[in-house]
Amino acid sequence: MFVTDACKHLVAGVAVCAAGVAGAPMAAAQGYPTKVVRITLPYAAGAGPAVLTHIVAEKLSVQWGQQVVVDARPGANGFIAIEVVKKMPPDGYELLVASNAHAAINPWIFKNIPYNMETDFVPIGMIYTTPFFVTVSSTGPYQTIPAMIAGMKANPGKTTFGTPYVGSPADLGGALFQYLTGTTMIRVPFKDQMQIYPAMVNNDVTWTLSTLGSALPLLNAGKVKLLAIARPQRSPSVPNVPTFEEAGGPPGLLVDSWMALFGPRGMAPDLVRKINADLNRALNEADVREHLKQLGFEAYVSTPEQMAAAMKADLARYGELVKRTGATAE
Question: Are 214 and 152 in the same domain?
């Protein structure tokens, strides 16, 4: 079956990438960079991932003595941004930020995707991991988890769920929510997640699963409310927000995301190592850590090999989730 084969190729590909990175001599990284470096990402400019990418880009710019620009190209399940970078030369001047949605979910839910992690990209390093929160309008019909579940059961198929795009962690999280609670709802896809919040504030959609960083402006303005975190532990960034189970929901709602840096396939291993080391140096700076905390993100310092292993593990986890919930993009 296509999905199974695609996933096998992805797993094999990241392993090969990691092995290649580990073994080649130092050469290509000498003198890098000598011109502007571009980081393309499949998120809207105001979204949490874009904000953090700009912060990291500024740190890399200082380290390298060259401008590092961020090019936000949201939409089409990340395909737009990914296709731009996969066609670029593997010289380190065109990089991609993408998430577990693009690397570990898309291969399971799309029959055909316009990229292949084995042939098109090499893992460079993780940037952060972040949990998702059950988020509602402060003036919406549901202000607690039990009220939401009861309302959805009383009115099946009436509650609307805003999702940034089909196949995102939030989208699969919504499917998992339905599976765990025995409810049904209407999935409303948006071009990007930043469009969800105004719609939710206007009560055009009932709820969403959001990261803290993306919800923060409206959260600070008192227009949205975090009902629960979708993982077994509370977040140190917002310790007053209960877990889904603590808030009255069933156990097992785990929705999270990571963001990572990729390069076009064929990058020299020593160049991958250099960028990885400089990225990790940026992530370990105190002000970057503080920015991460404010956005509800947790720094995810890794080697290329560790990144490859995380991708492999998530591929297996999401494959099981797709099988259990029946989620699909078709």
Answer: yes
Domain extent for 211: 133-229
Instruction: Report residue 91 as tokens.
Output: 């010289």
Domain total for the chain?
2
Torsion of CA 203, 257, 38, 14, to 10 degrees: -150
Domain identity same for 28 and 82: yes
Domain check: are 123 and 147 in the same one? Answer: no
DSSP state of 96: E
Q: What is this structure's pTM?
A: 0.79
Instruction: Note whether residue 148 is domain-resident.
Output: yes
What is 251-285 written as a DSSP string? S----EEEEEEEEETT--HHHHHHHHHHHHHHHTS
Cα–Cα dist 18/258, whole Å: 18
Q: The domain spanning residue 215 has which CATH number?
A: 3.40.190.10
Do 114 and 155 lie in one domain? The reply is no
What are the pLDDT tens digits along the chain (330 aa)? 333 444 444 444 444 444 444 444 456 778 899 999 999 999 888 777 888 999 999 999 999 999 999 999 988 888 999 999 999 999 999 999 999 989 999 989 888 889 987 789 999 999 999 999 999 999 999 999 999 999 999 999 999 999 987 788 998 999 999 999 999 999 998 876 788 999 999 999 999 999 898 888 899 999 999 999 999 999 988 999 999 999 999 999 999 999 999 999 999 999 999 999 999 999 999 999 998 988 888 899 999 999 999 999 998 988 988 888 777 776
